[in-house]
Sequence to fold (169 residues):
Amino acid sequence: MEAGFSEMRSELQSRDALWRRIQLECHRLHAELLKIREYKDMQEIQIMHQSSCVQLTEQLENKNAQLLLLAQSQGQQQEELNKIRNRVYQEEQYHRSEQERMKTEISDLTEELHQKEITIATIMEKASLLERQLKMELEIKDKLLAKQQFLDFRYKVIKSENMHLKEMV
Fold:
């Protein structure tokens, strides 16, 4: 996108330079026209050769025609320059709005990531707490199971003793 802007700026500068050259040529032609008019006036005052006057008039007409063509070209160049400026302005505006949109999106994603990190940290804390609770409950159950096994063993021993005593009686 930067290359497009650079290309448009180069084209704009080129057209500005052309515009300035056209304006300089117009000024030069105006000055030349004034000189020609002065020369023509001097020729009429001095009553010079008729062919010289005709030649100067033709030159003047040619210069006038050139001046008109340059003026027309100048108007077209100005229109083209305005179009390019508008296009560059629109592209810059679009680029700025895209940058703002991307900044907003990045900010939103960063906030979302932060929230997810907080959620993960909370879940990890709860998981750690549950793991400790489960270990404690497992230890308690292991102790109860050992006690139960011990009581089962004592029950069997007492039952066996009872049977033995019954047989003896």
